[in-house]
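Appendix B, record 7
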Amino acid sequence: MAEGTVQTIQVNAPAEVVFDVAAHVENFPEWATGVRETEVLEVNEDGTPARARLIVDGMIRTITYVLNYTYDGIARIEWTAEPGDDIAEMEGRYEFYELENGATEVVYALKVEPNFKVPGLLRRQAEKQIVGTALRGLRDRSEELASAAD
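Structure tokens (predicted):
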């Protein structure tokens, strides 16, 4: 992925739990700030989403897009957006690294090209905010579920 935003966070939960939270697109509105609505359009044989529609608060306006997902076991989730009215191009990924202490390091990379005029600096700031907020939400939700399972 050329350019874009990449951030990392440590989550005090096993990789399986963190992956499960990130893979359940239908639950994003419960923990991902700004995600208003999701709809899984297609699923893979293992039940993971293959294609989903999201409606998000894009700060400037409400944005709707469809993502296509691919998976590498529980180590990685990648997505690309179908070009649409709001998004010209979007690609992203989560990578999950199990640490020796039972925690998980999560890397989130995102590149977005909106289909409307946004100055480059503002676009980069929005990417950074989206990634940072999503990582914190993923961490909080995963740690909450891991604590409840103990």
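Remarks on this record: The two ends are 38 Å apart (CA to CA). The first strand starts at residue 5 and ends at 11.
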